[in-house]
Write a structure and sequence with these properties.
There is one protein chain. The protein is an alpha/beta fold. It has two domains: 17-53 and 296-401, Aspartate Aminotransferase, domain 1 (Alpha-Beta Complex); 55-290, Type I PLP-dependent aspartate aminotransferase-like (Major domain) (Aspartate Aminotransferase, domain 2). The chain is 43% helix and 14% strand. The protein has helices at 18-21, 27-35, 55-69, 83-95, 111-122, 137-145, 162-172, 193-205, 229-233, 260-273, 279-290, 294-319, 345-354, 384-401, and strands at 41-42, 105-108, 128-133, 149-156, 159-160, 176-179, 210-213, 237-242, 254-257, 325-326, 334-338, 357-358, 360-361, 374-378. An eight-stranded mixed β-sheet has the order 2-9-8-7-6-3-4-5, sandwiched between helices. The chain has a four-stranded antiparallel β-sheet with strand order 10-11-14-13. A two-stranded parallel ribbon has the order 1-12. A hairpin with a 7-residue loop joins strand 10 (325-326) and strand 11. The N and C termini lie far apart (70 Å).
Length: 402
């Protein structure tokens, strides 16, 4: 006999923590709900092109995994990640100029978890973090949970303006410097090598760790490669990377590369979160890469994304009125648009949706406010026809309202 209760639980009386109640949902996720409506051309999400997902090769790799590893592939696994994949990632990093060993590598459930683990390990309420202005909204969400404060630094075409970094260090004594140094989300800007070296010099002199968020580093399709922050800075840098942008984001497998002496701290906080990252998919990725499939896959993506970026830039030149500026990224997934100062991209957004086209307005990426006249466009996910049509719709909107 099942005994039930007649009274309904009053969940509105439950005492949720104040710092959780203060969190806001991701505006990008909310915009994605709107832009998923039928007929809407979306430049809003940070979505890779689905036609680039190597489904057949991943399925083949999964077959190898079940035959080769059997029950091990679906058993509980190591918090730091399976040994085979960590060794492979360390060897690949070393080959590309970042000397790494297995003890430098921690597998995480997407780069977003890596950011969150660093925040959990370092940030206490009221601590300052130096960030670019604007910066990646997902990182702000992770930092906001721990009630961080922000010492923001403006960017030019070469990335962070170093004089401002120096002043912010003197003023706020930050716990960390956070940067998306390659094809930055949201602007698409890449930090130049001289700026990287200058930033590292300041960080090392002041004993401040640099968290380099580098999900797009492999997707350079134009310009001259720049050494990674990790390559230049070694143990001064903790980097987070991911397979989301070169394989498929739904896999939720990424990694951290940091100093051996501190990786144990991240392992402990990861154990609090999820024990370990999906072991089956770690083995699948390992077999996929071991079969020599990753580098050709990256080259396919570069060709596809360069064509889409070029098409979007040309459409903007043709359709956008004078007074609008934008970045021309050499890789990644995004470009950044700046409207005349008196125009609000947020206020124009509902009118864009009426015309069945979506973007992400920029002010949510400014930690301390600002950026009302900016917005982000994603060029990787839309078809060629939708890029031309969608930019045309935006161009008409701007001509009528600027």
């Amino acid at each position: 006999m099942v005994v039930g209760f007649n009274e309904k639980a009053r969940t509105d009386k439950w005492k949720i923590a104040s710092h959780v109640l203060g969190l806001e949902t991701s505006i990008i996720r909310e915009i994605l709900k709107i832009s998923s409506q039928p007929g809407v051309i979306s430049f809003a999400g940070g979505l890779p092109a689905p036609e680039m997902f190597p489904l057949d090769d991943m399925l083949e790799a999964l077959g190898v995994v079940f035959k080769k590893y059997g029950h091990t592939s679906v058993q509980y696994s190591l918090s730091r990640g399976i040994t085979e994949l960590r060794e492979l990632i360390a060897a690949r990093a070393t080959k590309r100029g970042t000397k790494s060993e297995i003890d430098n590598i921690l597998i995480v459930s997407g780069a977003q978890q890596g950011i969150e683990l660093v925040a959990r390990a370092f940030i206490e309420p009221g601590d300052y973090i130096i960030t670019e202005n604007p910066t990646y909204l997902g990182a702000l969400q992770a930092f906001n949970y721990y009630r961080a404060r922000y010492a923001t630094v403006e960017m030019d075409d070469e990335g962070m303006i170093i004089d401002q970094v120096e002043r912010q260090i003197e003023r706020h004594h930050p716990k960390m410097i956070y940067t998306v140094s390659n094809f930055q989300n949201p602007t698409g800007i890449t930090m130049s090598e001289p700026r990287r070296r200058a930033l590292l010099e300041l960080a090392i002199a002041n004993d401040i760790p640099i968290l380099d968020d580098n999900p797009y580093g492999d997707i350079r399709f134009a310009g001259k490669p720049v050494p990674t922050m990790k390559c230049l800075g070694g143990d001064a840098v903790i980097t987070v990377r991911t397979f989301s942008k070169v394989l498929a984001p739904g896999l939720r497998v990424g990694w951290m590369n940091g100093p051996k002496e501190i990786m144990g701290q991240f392992e402990k906080v990861k154990q609090c979160a999820d024990l370990h990252t999906n072991a089956l998919l770690q083995y699948m990725i390992y077999e996929y890469i071991s079969a020599g499939k990753l580098e050709p896959q990256i080259e396919r993506i570069k060709v596809d994304y360069r064509k889409k970026r070029d098409l979007m830039l040309q459409a903007m030149r043709d359709e956008f009125p004078q007074g609008i500026r934008w970045t021309e990224p050499e890789g990644g997934l995004f470009l950044w648009v700046t409207l005349p100062g008196h125009v609000s991209a947020k206020e124009l957004f509902p009118r864009a949706i009426e015309r069945k086209v979506a973007y992400v307005y920029g002010e949510t990426s400014y930690p301390n406010g600002g950026g009302e006249n900016t917005f982000r466009l994603n060029f990787s996910n839309a078809s060629h026809a939708d890029i031309v049509e969608g930019i045309g719709r935006l161009g008409k909107l701007f001509r009528e309202n600027i």
